[in-house]
Design goal:
The complex is a heterodimer of chains A (459) and B (479). By secondary structure, chain A is of the alpha/beta class. Helices cover 33% and strands 25% of the residues of chain A. Chain A is built from 16 helices and 22 strands. In chain A, strand 9 and strand 10 form a beta hairpin. In chain A, helix 7 packs across helix 10 and helix 7 packs across helix 15. The two termini of chain A are 21 Å apart. By secondary structure, chain B is mostly helical. In chain B, 66% of the residues lie in helices and 2% in strands. Classes of the chains: A alpha/beta (459), B mainly alpha (479). Chains A and B meet through helix 11 and strand 14 of A and strand 1 of B. Strand 14 of chain A pairs antiparallel with strand 1 of chain B, so a sheet runs across the interface.
């Protein structure tokens, strides 16, 4: 596929890297030479220097043959205009644009469309990050929680503690341990490496796993896993948010609606002032997030959750470590740089949100072709989730899973048949028309996609 | 200051006001009761004064300043009160100038305090004139509260600038006429519905129209000495209660609701409205428990009197001064809170009290979180600190005025309970108070000096203190 990416910032860079690795023809456009050089040095893509909205620049980037345009420059307006130009002059089939301003996003359904601003999909990193944080707050003891098939299937990440019900057992014995709860391990992290487990892998204390489970069994699962561990909140929940950026605003205003006490610490006086005006009940404090006196004054020990959302990775990491010292039960840390993402787990911060990664994942979700609907990444991004429809002619239907030859490092996480959710075992059968949720290593992704697409070739 | 422009506007007001006297004159003719000539005289005098001001001294103003606005508003109430007193004086219904002026000012400010007794036998034309004065006063107040005061920035009234769609200072006249038309329309419709409901409940047309005008204006004048209690009809009481509550709501809210099929949610979204309803409910409950417990009243009397006092209307169905003392204090406090801003009601207005209360809570909050940034919220809007300050200033002046007037009344020889309650009743534009000015008696027996002071208090309360006080500052008159 021919893809043009406008903007070689964090998001643009990451998407370009992923798409190039998967064998697409990618052109990256930016006005900054240094940034382009970094892109050109690290991946096999074409780079074009120039203003992203100019027709001549787009022409040089190969807009005439491009099937997909991803506008991810810093300016919303440039992104919109670029999509318009690509639409009117080059007839680019699919156009995606990053739109940050909530005012635009709010009127998205009317603003963007074939006859209006020709943008097929809006990407807003702050919103993505905020909703991923909110999901994690909802499922309290999960490290990560993702929803698929309109929320019917959850992929939950949990850490195996020494006392855990799952500690020390092999994957094939899990269903016995969980009794009536159908759950299947789709990803396993050991010593910092994520892989798709086979039946013989053992779960050790300190490992993390992703479990696929139907929505209605999520609570049962946690009840089962944590019998004896209290997760109930006494009275109203208290959340402390550090940093007053856009993500923090979205998270805080959502939490307000759920009747949760929110405290926000923001360093910048103007920004703190803005937050105090915009939010209804939250307490906005202007001060240094790493100031011990301030933190104690605001009773950090009493918090149920601590969320570090400043623009600065280091502040977030240090703040989270301080919160850990004060025994805050749940800590969410926003980390942008990939290099930190792994490090952070090693120093004991389990829940890490990376807006860049989430955004890239949501963009990639729209890039897939054929009958593939959803796309997301797990863990540190080395595992992919995809949801696809099993066609009548596909080789995977009507055969028990254990007899199928799946690509290496891939697993079926769930089968969705109408309203019904099946968490499969070896004897489950995929029927034509089912939606199949799969988890696979990035490397095997193309093969997995092939399983669903090959059938089309018969016609 | 554009004096000629101010005179021009006052001239128009006098002309309109004078013409309105033809209605009671016509009633006098039809009932053949002899006040006809007195009304015609008052009407003629008003028209002549108005015409002279309009054609001779006045000049159509191009543009009016802030300061002109203050002067016009204050003078309008004074001039019209004087003109409106003429029929009372010349017919001899009021024996002295003070009584006549008191009655007239009480009407125009929609206070409803009266010096007259024997209302049941009073000529219809006079009764109608009293009610109509209240009604016209109420009309003026709505425009004043919704359209003019926000522009003048009186005591936190800027709050409503956001709600009344897009007025710009320089376009004041155009905006006001536009807004005024809609508001008067609502006001008129409400009066007509109220009157029809009264007739349906068994009142005769004359009483129905009079009471409807006084209810919607949150005035409180009645055509009977026993007020609404005269009818002894729970249905009429209920209708009155409903319309008192409706008239106590911000008229911009009615306007907004009108555009949305009167959905209740539209009202409930409003912070001030919610507080208003909660205050009324709280008063009904607490007064109800005390009164029913002591066996001095019935539930329908409690609801009626509580709503009447809390909205600052001043109708009565029974003598609440006979209730246990605790209820007196509650009603007294309710008078001060008053109705919603932008309504015909008086008092300090619910929204101001609400914001002061929130400000107080905010200060406590600040003690717990010394580094927090705290703003006062109204609905989902942030109230600018400058507005909260203006409201504090208003509050302080209100209390100072209250004390000053009460002290002056004391000096004029009025006993303490009467002085304190009469001041409250007049400053908040309620009408009946406690002591010798309770609902069972009236203001007739107060000394003349006291009546003059209370007249001043009524206008002061009506003009939200600032509008009046600003005229007393030398700075105001400087070029």
């Amino acid at each position: 596929m021919n893809v043009i990416i406008l903007g070689a910032g964090e998001v643009g860079y990451h998407i370009a890297e992923r798409l190039a690795r998967e064998g697409n023809n990618v052109s990256v456009v930016d006005i900054d030479e240094d940034r382009l050089k970094r892109v050109a040095d690290n991946m096999d893509v074409r780079t074009v220097l120039g203003e992203a909205t100019h027709p001549s620049v787009l022409a040089r980037a190969g807009a005439a043959d491009a099937e997909l345009l991803i506008a991810a420059t810093v300016s919303d307006e440039s992104n919109m205009l670029a999509c318009q130009v690509a639409h009117s002059l080059f007839k680019v089939t699919t156009k995606m644009a990053r739109i940050r301003e909530p005012d635009y996003v709010q009127h998205g359904d009317k603003l963007f469309g074939r006859d209006d601003l020709p943008i097929d999909t809006i990407i807003s990193p702050e919103r993505e990050a905020a909703s991923s944080i909110l999901r994690r707050l909802q499922v309290i003891s999960a490290l990560d929680a993702q929803e698929f098939s309109s929320g019917r299937v959850h992929l939950l990440s949990i850490k195996i503690t020494p006392k855990s019900l799952l500690a020390g057992i092999s994957i094939r014995d899990i269903s016995e341990r969980l009794g009536s709860i159908a759950a299947c391990v789709v990803a396993h992290e050991h010593n910092g490496t994520w892989r798709v487990p086979d039946g013989n892998s053992s779960l050790l204390a300190g490992d993390s796993v992703y479990l696929a489970v139907a929505k209605k069994q999520v609570e049962d699962l946690f009840y089962h896993l944590e019998a004896g561990v209290t997760t109930e909140y006494q009275g109203r929940r208290n959340v402390m948010i550090v940093g007053g950026g856009h993500i923090a605003y979205v998270v805080a205003s959502e939490l307000e609606k759920r009747d949760i006490h929110v405290k926000i610490i923001e360093h910048n006086t103007k920004r703190a002032d803005w937050m105090a005006r915009k939010l209804e009940h939250s307490v906005v404090i202007c001060g240094d997030a790493l100031d011990r006196v301030l933190l104690e004054e605001e009773n950090i020990e009493g918090m149920d959750d601590y969320i570090a959302l400043t623009n600065d990775d280091e502040t977030n990491i240090l703040g989270s470590l301080i919160a850990k010292k004060y025994n805050v039960p749940h800590i969410i840390t926003l980390v942008n740089r990939t290099i930190y993402s792994r490090l952070v787990r090693e120093i004991g911060l389990d829940i890490v949100v990376s807006p860049r990664l989430t955004t890239a994942a949501s963009i990639l979700r729209h890039v897939r072709k054929g009958k593939i609907y959803g796309m997301s990444s797990l863990g540190d991004g080395s595992l992919e989730v995809l949801e696809a429809e099993a066609l009548k002619t596909s080789s995977i239907v009507n055969t028990p899973l254990r007899e199928l030859n799946f690509p290496k490092q891939s697993v079926v996480a769930a089968i969705i048949r109408g309203e019904q959710v099946i968490i499969p075992n070896g004897y489950s059968v995929i029927a034509a028309g089912d939606h199949v949720l799969m988890v696979a290593m990035s490397e095997s992704l193309t093969d997995v996609e092939g399983m669903f697409e090959v059938s089309l070739e018969f016609f | 200051m554009h004096y000629r422009g101010i005179v021009w506007i006052l001239g128009i007001l006098s002309l309109l006001y004078g013409s309105s006297m033809l209605i009671p004159a016509a009633i006098a003719v039809s009932s053949d009761s002899g006040e006809f000539l007195h009304f015609v005289f008052a009407c003629a005098l008003s028209l002549i004064i108005g015409a002279v001001a309009f054609f001779y001294f006045g000049e159509r103003p191009d543009r009016l300043s802030h300061r002109d606005g203050f002067l016009i508003v204050a003078l309008a109430w004074v001039v019209l009160s004087i003109l409106g007193a003429l029929p009372f004086l010349t017919t001899g219904i009021c024996p002295s100038v003070f009584d006549a002026l008191f009655e007239s000012a009480s009407g125009l400010t929609t206070t409803g305090a009266t010096v007259l007794s024997g209302l049941d036998g009073m000529p219809h034309s006079i009764l109608f004139w009293r009610s109509m004065q209240e009604w016209l006063g109420g009309m003026g107040i709505i425009v004043l509260a919704v359209a003019i005061m926000p522009l003048l920035g009186v005591g936190g009234m800027q709050l409503f600038r956001a709600e009344t769609p897009g007025p710009v200072k320089d376009k004041l006249t155009a905006r006001v006429t536009e807004t005024a038309k809609v508001l008067w329309y609502i006001y008129l419709i409400m009066t007509l519905i109220c009157a029809t409901a009264f007739v349906a409940a068994g009142m005769n047309w004359f009483d129905a129209i009079n009471h409807a005008m006084c209810t919607v204006a949150i005035g409180g004048f009645s055509t009977h000495d026993a007020s609404i209690g005269y009818y002894g009809s729970p249905l009429i009481e209920t209708i009155t209660v409903v319309f008192m509550i409706l008239a106590g709501i911000n008229f911009t809210l009615h306007f907004a609701a009108m555009q949305n099929q009167f959905s209740f949610r539209n009202y409930w979204k409003d912070d001030e409205f919610r507080t208003y309803v909660k205050i009324l409910a709280f008063l009904m409950l607490s007064v109800g428990v005390i009164v029913l417990g002591s066996g001095t009243g019935e539930w329908h009397q409690i609801i009626f009197n509580v709503v009447s006092i809390a909205t600052t209307t001043g109708f009565a169905v029974s003598d609440y001064t006979q209730w246990p003392p605790g209820t007196g204090m509650l009603l007294f406090a309710a008078m001060f809170v008053g109705a919603c801003a932008g309504s015909t009601g008086g008092g300090m207005k619910v929204v101001r009290v609400l914001l002061l209360f929130r400000q107080g809570l905010g200060e406590i909050h600040r003690m717990i979180h010394p580094h927090a940034i705290i703003y006062i919220k109204l609905g989902d809007q942030t109230v600018e600190p400058a507005i909260v300050q203006a409201i504090w200033g208003f509050f302080v002046l209100y209390i100072v005025c209250y004390l000053m007037v009460a002290i002056l009344l004391g000096l004029a020889g009025v006993d303490m309970l009467t002085a304190l309650s009469a001041t409250a009743a007049c400053l908040t534009n309620t009408g009946p108070g406690f002591g010798s000015v309770g609902p069972a008696s009236n203001y007739a027996d107060l000394p003349h000096a006291a009546k003059a002071i209370l007249m001043f208090a009524m206008v002061l309360g009506r003009l939200e203190i600032y509008t009046f006080f600003v005229l007393l500052i030398p700075e105001f008159w400087r070029k």
